[in-house]
Design a protein that fits this description.
about 375 residues; 2 domains; 17 helices
């Protein structure tokens, strides 16, 4: 009897051990199936992942160095985020052109939620019907060839003023960066608002502040599960201050345009529409698949302003820097310019277009020095 109990116990123990081993193998197989087949990448540390490998230099320089070691498709863990880094023309074309729809999703970053009206601008909006409609409005209504051509006189006046200012300062030191930014600001302001704004001293550092908080790595975006992190880091309060200041200026601009439109309707006076007028008209009469709110308009205006000032002036600044570093390219560029350089007779649009078509320094600058070298 005792031997029978021992035998039964051994059978039961063997059965339990067999079941345990089968379950473990099944679990291991299931876990293996769920594990993503990630590209190669550097070894990571607990909690922070590969964040430490982005310190000590500009982020896009560090990413370039890491990609040279691990390949054009590289995996990084940035805090809690699994990140795939694409760093070759061939793979970039596959991601951004061939399979664009599959990679069109944008993460909801803190800067988009706070500053850009809950991610309702073009740059931070999630891919979907709203984004497609907004992009269509931008292409067909705001940035169409006809609309851009209507602002030609504004561009020529401001560029002529810049040339005259530089010419009058011959032999003395000038702050070209500031002058280029001012020209870009004036052109964008006049195209968007019909006139120069008196808030330049406030709006320029405001735009630069927005770019600063939006361009870098925000620690709260890398650890989204830690809800208190935006407050602890002080980033939320900083972004909210920037948003409130921008909203105050944009609200004033929209109110002015609505009042001007009401006055124009009562006096039957016809004035050329600026970009804000176009957006307000679309809000009232546009055949859109969504309701274009005032906050949506503010978000789009902020997008246009940042793109029209900081991006444009940055490219021009880099172009001048490259020309000064390479005198032979400078000489070639000078020979390509029209013979008559008098500001009042210079067709800047045609001259710039011809220069770009010849693929000279102006054409290559955005490739060498992209305003946003790291895109998400």
């Amino acid at each position: 009897m005792e031997q029978l109990q021992i035998a039964s116990s051994l059978v039961l123990l063997s059965s339990l051990l067999f079941i345990f081993m089968v379950l473990r193998m099944l679990r291991k197989s299931k876990t293996k199936d769920l594990t993503p087949n990630l590209p190669p990448g550097p070894r990571k540390l607990p909690v922070i992942g590969n964040l430490h490998q982005l310190f000590g230099s500009l982020p896009h320089h560090r990413l370039r160095d890491l990609a040279a070691k691990h390949g054009p498709i590289m995996h990084l863990q940035l805090g809690q985020l699994q990140t795939i880094v694409i760093s070759s023309p061939e793979t970039a074309e596959q991601v951004m052109k061939v399979h664009d729809i599959n990679f069109a999703h944008r993460p909801r970053l803190l800067v988009g939620q706070i500053i850009f009206y809950n991610c309702t601008d073009i740059a931070t909006a999630a891919y979907g019907d709203y984004w497609r409609q907004l992009r269509k409005v931008s292409v067909l209504e705001l940035l169409s060839p006809k609309r851009v051509q209507s602002f030609r006189s504004i561009r020529e006046e401001e560029v002529s003023s810049l040339i005259g200012s530089i010419s009058s300062s011959a032999g003395s030191i000038i702050n070209l960066s500031r002058m280029l930014f001012s020209v870009a600001y004036n052109i964008t302001t006049r195209a968007a608002f019909s006139k120069l704004r008196k808030e330049e001293e406030i709006f320029v550092p405001l735009v630069q502040g927005i770019i600063q908080v939006g361009a870098g790595f925000n620690i709260s975006d890398l650890f989204p599960s830690i809800k208190l992190l935006p407050w602890i880091s002080g980033m939320r309060s900083r972004m909210e201050r920037l948003h409130q200041e921008a909203d105050r200026i944009l609200e004033s601009i929209i109110k002015e345009h609505r009042a001007r439109k009401a006055e124009g309707n009562s006096s039957n006076e016809k004035k050329a529409d600026d970009l804000v007028d176009v957006l307000l008209h679309l809000q009232e009469h546009g055949n859109l698949d969504f309701s274009l709110t005032t906050d949506n308009i503010k978000a789009v205006i902020l997008d246009l302003f940042i793109a029209g000032t900081e991006t444009s002036s940055t490219i021009l600044e880099w172009a001048m820097s490259e020309l000064l570093k390479h005198p032979e390219v400078m000489e070639k560029a000078q020979t390509e310019l029209p013979g008559d350089m008098k500001p009042e007779s210079l067709d800047m649009s045609e001259a710039f277009g011809a220069a770009v078509r010849r693929k000279n320094a102006l054409h290559l600058t955005p490739i060498l020095h992209h305003p946003h070298p790291v895109r998400s």
